[in-house]
Each structure stands twice: as structure tokens, then as C-alpha cells.
């Protein structure tokens, strides 16, 4: 906070509020192969509600929130269980929040939209489906359970991804691990411009106040040129036609909002990037227990048109990513490996989607949608030319791909960041390095310093990724080590054995153990 506002802060570590006992239960979803994590979460939510415990179930996605709520409600028809997430209309959200406070609603399946900042009273139990990305979020979500001195239950359900497996095998570490230190860059131009817009809309921005934002007059020029700021005797004044509150969103790349409509009526809203992934033609949307199929995505008018339709499948977008290295701020060599850190340009494009039934992909359909491009910070690993020859008989490209997935998956433990803060690409040949490369980049325009932290601790990071792969008992690769549900190439090519050897060589080189 001191970096944000330029003043020192005092930390209050202990809460004086009364709090009853809170019991944590760790639930490994991989132990029940006959039921998906979604089915297990719905069963647990319905059980707790059936036992008279008002329960909030946090899910990692909007779709899962809808499905869990629907399945749980069907299991206990005498109770009221609903879903909650961003995108709902304001009046819908207020109705659910009031229902929780007044205990007219028995259970809710929600995204992290209910994590903090909304008064819903104290609940009897919380279910956290999947490690939410940070220790901070675990405690924020767990804190929703408990009213006064009454006991509360918190269930943490683990998926098969690397971070979840890590904490399922080390539950005490999750409860004692330090909270993340926010990594920020007050001079990030993407964020700075939005701060200046909001500030000048509240009060005229005086010359001597610009420094409070770690900025100079140069930062105001793009806003002046766009007609969003005007100079007056009292300072700079926001003069845009729409309030910044309505268009500024620090969580997304774009401030564009897409309206999702059915029969001319507004169903919900999405940010532009999410709409490309979830409201493309053919996408299946779930909204408050109802199923809709998108017929058209009109990006000229920022409208998605859908129809109410019962289907027995769901859709999953495939995103293809390309990275261009723009500049290099740091570089070093270790045991034949070359590491670099600097500015990169990321291009993400939804190239198609999978049609899934009962968790299995049954069809793939291509899409032609515009790419989302942004500049950010990244780092890259260039293996030595002779390494490929040392792993003959294995898939070199598949090994690079697996190493990339493992490095991205384990990075949050090293950088104390959210798992969604990073992305990555790998290729046997990249023109910017004239050879094979693994690139890991930040997911927000401009970057906030995560890449620099990973670069500074690259040895420990590589060791953690190596251990993740080599200690996993699977043979061909699984979601606990090198397979990623986010992979736009459908996890192809993939070679776990080659990935393990590449990461072992990298870890040895960075820690001085290379022979």
C-alpha cells in the first residue's frame, strides 16, 4: 500500500472481532474417480444445506458455479440454492445478497465475486472448490464462514492441477504459509492512465498532485489528445461522456463491455476478452439455471445474440498464443542455457472451441475472431543446442511444451502471485532467439514485476518445476504435472520424459551443478 499511495502504513495483524472455532477439511477430488469435481462439489453443497448449514461454495469458473448450483438444487428441492457471479444484472445480485443476509437462501455456488466487499452476513460453512490462486483468497473465502462465536466449517477441495496437488499433500503449509505481498508497478502506463481518469473525475487534478501518482505531465498527454482531459484554471478535469467508473476495469485488458441478449432483452454483460472466449458463435452459456446458445457475436455493436435452448453438451474455447520479444533488459548464461528478461508482445486469439459431453471432447469447431494484443514483461529460456541430442528418442518439441507448462504451473509458489497472472509459449524455433525457447510472460499489459521476481529466483523456480515433473507418478503426463486445461494446442505435442530432462538440466545449470 505504501508503494501505491506514497505514505507509510502500520500493519494491524490481529483482529479484535469475536470468532468461534473454524474447522478446515481437505477434500481430494482425485480419490473419487467415478465422479467429477463438479459433481462432488454439488453433492457436498447439497449435503451441507440438507443438514441445515447455510453454505457458500466458491468455484473457479462461472460455468461451474451454474452447474454446481443446479445439481445441488435438484438434490434438495425443499431448499433454495442459487448461483452468483459477475455478469448478472445489478438487481439480480442485490436480490441474492439480501437473501443470504436474511437467510432466505440456503446455499450459493459463486465465483470469487462474493469473496469480499459485499455484506452477506456470516455463513455456517464455506466450500472452496480448487485452490483459488493465492493464500490471501483462501483466507478471504474461508472468512465468509462464522458468525460471532458459532463454530464454522471450511472445506478445501483439490483438483488434479499442480498447485492443488501441492497443497493437498501439504495442508498445514496452506494454513501457515505467509500471505502474498502484492507485486505492483505504480508507473505501469496501462494502469496509470486509468487512475488519472478516475482521479480527475472526482476533483480537478492540480499540477503539484501529479507526483502522487508516480507520474509526470507526459502521462496526461494521451488523455488530453483523446479529449478525455481538459485544462482549466483549477487543474485538469475529466470531460469524457461516460463516467470512468462505468468503463475502467483494472482486471481486464480492455474497457469494452459486451451485452449478451436473448430476444432483445439484456441477459448479462461481459468484458470484451471474456466475450471472445465465452460468447463466440456456438458457445453454450449458463445463466441462473437456464441454457443458452450464442448465435452471433456482433463486435461492431458489442452485442452477443443467443437463444434459449436445452442441449446435452457444453463448449470450451481454444486460445492460440504468440509472443514476440521486443527488448531485452537482462540476460545471463548458465551451463549453456541463456536466460533473458524484457519486454514482449503477446497476441491471443480464440481459434476454435471444443464441444464436450460428459467431460469428453466430441467435436472441434474453428472460429475466426480478432486477436487481443498487448505488451508486457516476460522472461525466456534458450536451451543449448547440444541438449536436443542428449534426449534422442524423445519428442524435443513435446519436452519444451511440457517444461513450459510446468514452469507456468509452479511459478505462483515462487513469485507469490495468482496462477492466472502468467502465460507461456514454447517452440523448437523462434526467430527472435534463432533457436528453441520457452517464454513465460505476465498476463497484464505493462507487467507488474512478476517476471523480474522469477528471473531473480530462476534457480529455485527451475528446481520446483523439475521436482513437479519428476516426482509425479504418471508415465505420459497428467494434469498434476505437464497437462494444462488452458492449452490452446490441446496439450500437443507433449513428452513428459523429455520435459523432465530439460528441467533437470536447467535446474542443474542455474544452481551450478551442471557437469
Instruction: Estimate the helix proportion, in percent.
Output: 25-40%
3D shape: globular
> Strand arrangement, largest sheet?
1-6-5-2-4-3
Main beta sheet: strand number and arrangement? 6 strands, parallel
Just give the CATH class of the largest domain: Alpha Beta
Mean pLDDT: 91
Please compute the radius of gyration using only Cα atoms: 24 Å
Summed up, the helix count is 16
Distance between the termini: 45 Å
Total beta strands: 19
Summarize the helices and strands and which ones pair or pack:
Elements: H1 2-5, E1 22-28, H2 37-50, E2 55-58, H3 62-75, E3 81-84, H4 90-101, E4 107-110, E5 125-129, H5 135-142, E6 152-158, H6 162-168, H7 171-176, H8 189-202, H9 221-225, E7 229-232, E8 235-238, H10 244-247, E9 257-262, E10 265-271, H11 272-278, E11 284-287, E12 290-298, E13 303-308, E14 314-334, E15 337-357, E16 360-366, E17 372-382, H12 385-390, H13 396-415, E18 422-430, E19 435-442, H14 450-456, H15 458-470, H16 496-510
Parallel strand pairs: 1-6, 2-4, 2-5, 3-4, 5-6, 9-13
Antiparallel strand pairs: 7-8, 9-10, 11-12, 12-13, 14-15, 15-16, 15-17, 17-19, 18-19
Sum this structure up briefly:
With 515 residues, the chain is of the alpha/beta class. Helices cover 30% and strands 29% of the residues. The chain contains 16 helices and 19 strands.
Amino acid at each position: 500500500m505504501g508503494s501505491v499511495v506514497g505514505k507509510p502504513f502500520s500493519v494491524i495483524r490481529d483482529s479484535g472481532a469475536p470468532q468461534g472455532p473454524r474447522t478446515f477439511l481437505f477434500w481430494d477430488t482425485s480419490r473419487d474417480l467415478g465422479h467429477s469435481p463438479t459433481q462432488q462439489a454439488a453433492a457436498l453443497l447439497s449435503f451441507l444445506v440438507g443438514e441445515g448449514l447455510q453454505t457458500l461454495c466458491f468455484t473457479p469458473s462461472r460455468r461451474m458455479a451454474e452447474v454446481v448450483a443446479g445439481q445441488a438444487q435438484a438434490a434438495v428441492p425443499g431448499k433454495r440454492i442459487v448461483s452468483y457471479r459477475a455478469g448478472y444484472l445489478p438487481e439480480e445480485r442485490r436480490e441474492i445478497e439480501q437473501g443470504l443476509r436474511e437467510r432466505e437462501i440456503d446455499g450459493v455456488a459463486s465465483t470469487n465475486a462474493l469473496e469480499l466487499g459485499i455484506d452477506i452476513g456470516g455463513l455456517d460453512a464455506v466450500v472452496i472448490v480448487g485452490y483459488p490462486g493465492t493464500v490471501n483468497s483462501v483466507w478471504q473465502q474461508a472468512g465468509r464462514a462464522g458468525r460471532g462465536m458459532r463454530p464454522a466449517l471450511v472445506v478445501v477441495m483439490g483438483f488434479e492441477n499442480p498447485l492443488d496437488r501441492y497443497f493437498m499433500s501439504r495442508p498445514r503449509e496452506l494454513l501457515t504459509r505467509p500471505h502474498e505481498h502484492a507485486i505492483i508497478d505504480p508507473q505501469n502506463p496501462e494502469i496509470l492512465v486509468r487512475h488519472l481518469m478516475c482521479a480527475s473525475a472526482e476533483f480537478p487534478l492540480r499540477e503539484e498532485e501529479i507526483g502522487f501518482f508516480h507520474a509526470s505531465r507526459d502521462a496526461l498527454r494521451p488523455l488530453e489528445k483523446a479529449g478525455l482531459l481538459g485544462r482549466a484554471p483549477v487543474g485538469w478535469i475529466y470531460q469524457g461522456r461516460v463516467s470512468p467508473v462505468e468503463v475502467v476495469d483494472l482486471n481486464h485488458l480492455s474497457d469494452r463491455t459486451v451485452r449478451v441478449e436473448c430476444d432483445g432483452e439484456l441477459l448479462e454483460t461481459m468484458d470484451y476478452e471474456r466475450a471472445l472466449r465465452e460468447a463466440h458463435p456456438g458457445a453454450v452459456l449458463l445463466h441462473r439455471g437456464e441454457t443458452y446458445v450464442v448465435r452471433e457475436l456482433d463486435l461492431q455493436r458489442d452485442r452477443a445474440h443467443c437463444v434459449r435452448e436445452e442441449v446435452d453438451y457444453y463448449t470450451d474455447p481454444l486460445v492460440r498464443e504468440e509472443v514476440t520479444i521486443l527488448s531485452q533488459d537482462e540476460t545471463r548464461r548458465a551451463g549453456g542455457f541463456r536466460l533473458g528478461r524484457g519486454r514482449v508482445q503477446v497476441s491471443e486469439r480464440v481459434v476454435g472451441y471444443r464441444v464436450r459431453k460428459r467431460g469428453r471432447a466430441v467435436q472441434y469447431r474453428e472460429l475466426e475472431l480478432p486477436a487481443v494484443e498487448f505488451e508486457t514483461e516476460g522472461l525466456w529460456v534458450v536451451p543449448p543446442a547440444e541438449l536436443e541430442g542428449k534426449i534422442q528418442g524423445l519428442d524435443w518439441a513435446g519436452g519444451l511444451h511440457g517444461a513450459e507448462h510446468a514452469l507456468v504451473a509452479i511459478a505462483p509458489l515462487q513469485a507469490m502471485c495468482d496462477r492466472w497472472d502468467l502465460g507461456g509459449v514454447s517452440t523448437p524455433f523462434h526467430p527472435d532467439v534463432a533457436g528453441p525457447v520457452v517464454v513465460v510472460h505476465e498476463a497484464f499489459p505493462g507487467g507488474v514485476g512478476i517476471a523480474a521476481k522469477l528471473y531473480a529466483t530462476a534457480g529455485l523456480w527451475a528446481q520446483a518445476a523439475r521436482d513437479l515433473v519428476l516426482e509425479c507418478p504418471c508415465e505420459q503426463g497428467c494434469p498434476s504435472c505437464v497437462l494444462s486445461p488452458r492449452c490452446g494446442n490441446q496439450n500437443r505435442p507433449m513428452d513428459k520424459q523429455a520435459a523432465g530432462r530439460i528441467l533437470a538440466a536447467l535446474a542443474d545449470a542455474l544452481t551450478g551443478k551442471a557437469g
